[in-house]
Amino acid sequence: MYKILIVEDDGVISKSLKDHLCKWGFEAVEILDFHQVINEFVAADPQLVLMDISLPFFNGYHWCSEIRKISKVPIIFISSTSDNMNIVMAMNMGGDDFIAKPFDLSVVVAKIQALLRRTYSFQGQMNLLEHKGAILNLGDASITYENQKVELSKNELKTLHILLENKGKAVSRDILMKGLWDSDCFVDDNTLTVNITRLRKKLDEAGLTDFIATKKGIGYLIGD
């Protein structure tokens, strides 16, 4: 089931969209706090966003730009300000489509279905994991913190994924090695140490100092 995040401050329109999308088998989530759109986006981890332009506090262009810093999730703008300048602005800010208000709900669903097919037919759904302001994007192998985006290697991504899924708990070196090199081939224990050292250096450069702690005699830990 695809999850759609609705960023629309008109309660009537938002509920109408949610109810209709649910009838079509989607899971629809409405933004509740327009101060915290990014936090709610990360918590929802949607496969598509419906974004109004005129919103409280910050407009839809701002939030589209913020989402684009951490995710390539499809974004469809919905707005009554449908002049050419706003449509061009929406596309330039990272939007994938534009629907003018008032709209026909069946047209909204058709556009959502088409965009989801184009986006996810040949790739897995993107997932985001957030911890203390750091956002791990499994879709593009990156971690973002305070507007700094760091590209990760395959092993660095796997390491952070395992540690974040077990945050608050120490993960043994054996479990990490099995997750990284799940084969019958012998892997030198020192190889894991080298990988962790390189990953910590990248995290330090992004401002995530001491993000990964060492539990002596056990393994590694990302604290709660």
Explain what this protein looks like in three dimensions.
There is one protein chain. The protein has 224 residues and is α/β, with parallel strands linked by helices. It folds into 2 domains: 3-120, Response regulator (Rossmann fold), CATH 3.40.50; 128-221, Orthogonal Bundle (Arc Repressor Mutant, subunit A), CATH 1.10.10.10. The protein has helices at residues 11-23, 37-44, 60-68, 84-92, 105-120, 154-165, 173-180, 189-205; strands at 3-7, 27-30, 48-52, 75-79, 97-100, 128-131, 134-137, 142-145, 148-151, 171-172, 213-215, 219-221. A hairpin with a 2-residue loop joins strand 8 (142-145) and strand 9 (148-151). The strands form 3 sheets. The protein has a 5-stranded parallel β-sheet, sandwiched between helices. Strands 6-7-8-9 form a 4-stranded antiparallel β-sheet, with helices on one face. Keywords: DNA-binding, Phosphoprotein, Transcription, Transcription regulation. Residues 126-224 form the OmpR/PhoB-type domain. Residues 3-116 form the Response regulatory domain. This is Stage 0 sporulation protein A homolog.
Structural class: alpha/beta
Beta strands, count: 12
Question: Could you say how many structural domains there are in total?
Answer: 2
CATH level 1 name of the largest domain: Alpha Beta
Order of helices and strands: EHEHEHEHEHEEEEHEHHEE
**CATH architecture tag of the largest domain:** 3-Layer(aba) Sandwich
Mean pLDDT: 87
Give the oligomeric state of the chains in this entry, treating copies of one chain as homo and distinct chains as hetero: single chain
Q: What shape does the CA trace take?
A: elongated
GO molecular function: phosphorelay response regulator activity; transcription cis-regulatory region binding
Pfam families: Response_reg, Trans_reg_C
GO cellular component, one term: cytosol
Protein name: Stage 0 sporulation protein A homolog
